[in-house]
Write a structure and sequence with these properties.
single chain; alpha/beta; 9-stranded mixed beta sheet; 6-stranded parallel beta sheet; globular; binds adenosine-5'-diphosphate; binds alpha-D-glucopyranose
Length: about 475
């Protein structure tokens, strides 16, 4: 098998620059691809957090000037990754990734065009010793990469565009076209034009050789008006070049047997030890310390997508039934305030931490009995996969990757001994409330609950299988190009 060289292009990489699951995927998939004989380099903006993490840094290319300031590509290691950091202080030397204080940076069109432009240059052979066979762009921030390559010089690498979230599309005014170094003819329905603007995600989906998204169900959903958010027509037209590959998780980071962030480590054989984490979590969020109370965890961005307003509505009735909640989240200000207020009303039963807290995220997985993900849409979702590994039984809405990763504890699945959680549909507060009550009844049957936990903990959620799928896809695309 010949080795494939792949260039990842993304706006986030964990742990150096993260707002969500994209960062986790970009950080973990390259190592798993290495086992499939794919050598990956990851191009990311040179944010301060990235620049500070670089080791063995070497100048890989000097662009002199890119969109109004000096820009260089630095090749370096960061953790296990081979990074290409785009060092362009006029664009990235700021404290935020996308913005500050709830507002996007006004020059995001240029910040992420620069990333795509630099990636397309590498794709066209700008680096002396390394030319990628495949350029793999993630989400709208990397969306112009296939477009720049399309209008650039041949030979072109194979291009793959992965959709992690179609809700973010990167739309900018059409009068930026020339300033973005896009040719006039690109402003067309089969080009970068998107409802009268320039669409970065649209451009990527239009010009890439293949589109993937992060679960098979989401790959189908986004071809419908309900989930496609305006892109369903294009996705239907490209359905033969669209597929879903489930995400995996970084099993070394998310491993309850070795996790340094939790007070008591455990595995499937020492599940009883979990009780210590439960009590630490109850203390941390000032919940009533009750070993037998049914404790439901949530770790999430607070946004419409995640359906946590549904949880707010369902809360009083569930608290009435004796359920406890541990919620960590940040995002939408109105939701932050509502949860803070609800925690005052239901103190002792609802513990809320607003903010981003990696340690608490791990403690919730290790200490909660169940883990709720009531999303309205969910391309894949990683937190329910962490929950499987940690023996927190997931209660999820039946959409996207949640539908694909959790096996509902219905009669047949229980009989067959394969259930790993609870699913509900539609994503409404009533259905969520009933699902959590169903989970509570299952919890009251201790041997049954233990089986659910064990089934989850032995589920393979590693990157092994997904990485094989990506590698197969690259090989298929390269061989059809050659043929
Ligand atoms: P999304 O990318 O849509 O936010 P995912 O489930 O794919 O959803 O990934 C979310 C990631 O972000 C997980 O690693 C989760 O643990 C983490 N996360 C979300 N909110 C917080 C928070 N407030 N504090 C710490 N980690 C968080
Ligand atoms: C997005 C999605 C989430 C997915 C993550 C990583 O942020 O919302 O479902 O798990 O990307 O692919």
């Amino acid at each position: 098998m010949t080795q494939i060289r792949a260039l990842f292009v993304a706006s986030e990489v964990a742990p150096f620059a993260k707002t969500g699951g994209l960062a986790d995927v970009v950080a973990a998939l390259p190592a798993a691809l290495a086992a499939e004989d794919v050598a990956c380099r990851v191009m990311v903006p040179g944010y301060p957090g990235v620049m500070a993490a670089l080791r063995d840094a070497k100048l890989a290319h000097d662009f002199n000037e890119l969109f109004g300031g000096a820009a260089r590509l630095i090749a370096a290691k960061a953790g296990p990754l081979e990074l290409l950091a785009l060092d362009a202080p006029h664009l990235y030397a700021r404290s935020g990734i996308y913005g500050e204080g709830g507002a996007d940076y006004p020059d995001n069109a240029f910040r992420f065009a620069a990333l795509a432009y630099a990636a397309s240059a590498v794709g066209q052979g700008t680096l002396e010793n390394w030319r990628p066979d495949v350029v793999h762009a993630h989400d709208w921030q990397a969306g112009l990469t296939p477009a720049y390559l399309h209008y650039g010089v041949a030979p072109r690498p194979v291009t793959v565009m992965t959709l992690h979230n179609i809700a973010f599309q990167g739309k900018f005014p059409k009068d930026l076209l020339a300033a973005l170094s896009l040719p006039d003819e690109s402003f067309a329905i089969d080009g970068v034009e998107y409802y009268g603007d320039i669409g970065y995600l649209k451009a990527g989906l239009q010009f890439c050789d293949h589109i993937t998204t992060v679960s098979p169900s989401y790959a189908e959903e986004i071809t419908t008006a309900e989930f496609g958010m305006g892109l369903e027509g294009l996705l239907r037209a490209r359905a033969h070049h669209l597929s879903g590959i489930l995400n995996g998780v970084e099993t070394r980071v998310w491993d309850p047997a070795s996790d340094p962030r939790i007070p008591a480590r455990y595995d499937a054989k020492t599940l009883a030890t979990r009780a210590k984490n439960k009590s630490a979590l109850q203390q941390r969020l000032r919940l009533v310390e009750d070993e037998n109370g049914f404790l439901i965890g949530v770790v999430s961005r607070l946004s419409w997508q995640k359906g946590l307003d549904l949880l707010l509505e369902a809360l009083p009735a569930l608290v009435e039934e004796g359920a406890q909640f541990a919620l960590l989240g940040a995002g939408d200000k109105a939701l932050e305030e509502s949860f803070t207020l609800a925690a005052k009303v239901s103190s002792g039963s609802l513990g809320v931490a607003i903010g981003y807290d990696e340690d608490l995220a791990h403690l919730i997985q290790a200490g909660a009995d169940a883990f709720a993900v009531p999303s309205r849409f969910e391309p894949c979702g990683l937190t329910q996969l962490y929950a499987l590994r940690y023996g927190a039984v997931p209660v999820v809405s039946r959409v996207g990757g949640l539908a694909d990763t959790i096996i509902d504890a219905n009669e047949m699945a229980l009989q067959a001994g394969v259930a790993t959680g609870v699913q509900f549909s539609p994503a409404t507060s009533d259905a969520l409330r009933l699902a959590l009550l169903r989970a509570k009844r299952l919890y009251d049957d201790k041997p049954l609950w233990r089986r659910l936990q064990m089934n989850g903990m032995k589920t393979d959620v590693s990157w092994k299988r997904p990485a094989r799928r990506y590698a197969d896809l690259y090989r298929k695309l390269l061989s059809s190009r050659a043929g």
